[in-house]
Here is the input.
Amino acid sequence: MTLYSLTHLQRLEAEAIHILREVVSEAANPVMLYSVGKDSAVMLHLARKAFYPSPPPFPLLHVDTTWKFRDMYALRDRAARKAGMQLIVYQNPEAVKRGINPFDHGSMHTDMWKTEGLKQALDLHGFDAAFGGARRDEEKSRAKERIFSFRTTNHRWDPKAQRPELWRVFNARKAKGESMRVFPLSNWTELDIWQYIHLENIEIVPLYFAAERPTVIRDGLLLMVDDERFPLNGETPVMRSVRFRTLGCYPLTGAVESHARTLPQIIQEMLLTTTSERQGRAIDHDQSASMEKKKQEGYF
Amino acid sequence: MNEIYKTDALIAEDIDSYLETHQHKTMLRFITCGSVDDGKSTLIGRLLYDSKMIFEDQLAALENDSRRVGTQGENIDFALLVDGLAAEREQGITIDVAYRFFATEKRKFIVADTPGHEQYTRNMVTGASTADLAVILIDARKGVLTQTRRHSYLAHLLGLRHIVLTVNKMDLVGYDWAVFEQIVKDYRDFAESIGIIDFAAIPISGLAGDNIAAPSANMDWYDGPTLLAHLETVDLDQSADQRKPFRLPVQWVNRPNLDFRGFSGTIAAGQVHPGDEVRVLPSGKTSTVARIVTFDGDQDRAVAGQAVTLCLADEIDCSRGQVITAARSPVEVADQFEATIIWMDEDNMVPGRAYWLKIGAQTVGATVAQPKYQVNVNTMEHLAAKTLDLNAIGVATVTTDRDIPFAPYEDSRDLGGFILIDRLTNRTVGAGLIHFALRRAQNIHWQATDISRDHHAAMKNQQPMVLWMTGLSGSGKSTIANLVEKKLARMNRHTFLLDGDNVRHGLNKDLGFTDADRVENIRRVGEVAKLMTDAGLIVITAFISPFRSEREMVRAMMQPGEFVEIFIDTPLAEAEKRDVKGLYAKARAGQLKNFTGIDSPYEPPETPQIRIDTTRMNAEEAADLIISKLIP
Here is the structure.
């Protein structure tokens, strides 16, 4: 008998597919959170693999803040069509009405658009399980979270009362109103994601590749002026060759100066870099436990 | 130069060939365990640091935290890297398992840092269940401790094939060879006694970095590999599962249209090729593999660990939870097992209570009998036990409500490992490892009878049902039940009254009043009531039946709608005031143990079909109300 040794990427892929199928079998109304970033791209690709030749039997949900990069909106609609999946776009109506934006409203921007928006969207559609693309290597409280992460009726995460999670046997049972956040990419690292995108030839937002873009520097972050809503206080945007390691709302997402125009070049830069990927995110900077607090409040 | 740093040159010069190498890396999942302060977190922090997995911004945050709450003075406290929860950082201990990732030139690693405290055993078990190897840490100054034994026992129990004994803090014992040798000898004596045949032993210092990534200059007497070198080269034997007969638990049936019917799942063991003969269990139907379907095209083989979709040549019945196996060596099918149970909930296991049991992709009802014994995980002694409490490990008989395909846990984690879920809270309350079947399913048959339950009921011209009265002792259950039966008799209904006290004189005279006996009491009454409804009767019961779980268990035994829960609601103070049988007085005086409401709990129904408030109506009115609700 010839024996075959599975590579780490093959094992991670199989694990993610197993998780996706388990949720579809046990949840009444699952949904996939789709943020258009590279992790979402990988997760969507895995979903297509898990259920092939069927299309993934759940919709995609984009909790929109209206402040994403224009390139992201373009890819979002294309990717959903290609996968044959319904795309639900949700914007918190209260945030729309009050015109919440990252320039005037600080942390309220994330709270209202993302945390509140997500909870509203899940409640509105009665989703009882939501896939998210979070990875355990991103942040310390995520490193502690289960793959099937139980949430109360108020969407709260209780880090001290996590269910034991053994082998590949996941407990998805819950009472009415309670829900699960499920993370198929829990055990992937940033390098695994890039490598998999490279191997599988997955389409990602062009912003991940270096290009000349109009930028300004604010509070130490290198920000891209993506549209006319960016208030320039007398500044003139400077064209710089930049790319993004993660993508969020464009006024909150720092770019890095780079000339990496291909995936291998991106991976090369990533491997030789000395800062972590979330460094460009304004959200975690407040304090060490800030992500844990946000998660308890219902943030993904 | 350190192995890891050499890769930098390759990355800089030839990223494509680096990627090619990295693609073919294997993956090792391991856990670290040890007592409090053995330096587990420090060791992992060191592994991450030495393999350059800590970035500058993280290092800056770490230096900041180290000064603020660290335990290493001016030095970096690596433990703060892994203790991620606020509560952990405050208390300086590890509560939950944390997963960390690093890679070297040869392998990718996932390390689960598991807590040392006994109260967090369930979290250690969570980490260990998916690991291939355990790094057991020992403080060189302390030697083999109770916790060392417990962690080793659990790692071995969960089937981790590789154990690495790392004797840490060698710097604090002057890098003394004799200290190391004595600890290794002590550990070997213990390890052999619990069946660990082989282990590696490495003297290290996590804080100083000795023998972690680089060989120690302080311990010339040690000529073995560094910890990292050992982790990189240990034989994973991952392909061993491929030599076993084929097994695929079906997770999901893929039916995009009428022309395609595929069975999706992760291969638990063996290999599969188109043309292989397979058998589906428990049904036993056979067929042939027609196609192995994946997004990347049809495959000519698939192996253990891969997630695939199979199409079979014949239209046979196969659904989620069933197992597709090699036709000539199928798995066993049974509904009763001996298993090791690890209890993981604050509420004790209740022998006889109906739990959900999830194994592979199947969830079934199951009960656990009173344990044959409990293992004292610190001394390995077998103790007599009536139940299992949080973190207890014991051996017990498990009975499922239907046949399930399985394999002994030592042959297959996927087909031999199960979890137990509480039916009301939905919490994962226990984990189980199947040893062997106690009763082969093929030996029990259901005898079909010609006169059906419908026929019985039709002859009596009535709808069978169970009027289940629950409430505290002295609430008035028996009185009301008796009146209800008399009124029904006057209406020419065929009834039977099962009374709590009366049943305990005969059928259940061997049972006492412990939680476990109360559960068995209700189970038997439920079975009798079920037989009576099969015979077409209206059954009236009057039992305290204090636990929601058991009332739900009886409801589940009956046909939908047949079970009517009637809550005889009398406040404790009122029942105690009446004290018709003088039992409350005795219980208060300590002469009666496990008395409901006094030193044993009563869980009132949350949504009873009928609620009788005995402070607002007498027994006669209550009986009339019940009849009016049932017979319009």
Remarks:
- The helical segments of chain A are 8-26, 38-51, 70-83, 93-98, 108-125, 190-200, 263-272, 290-296.
- The first helix of chain A runs from residue 8 to 26.
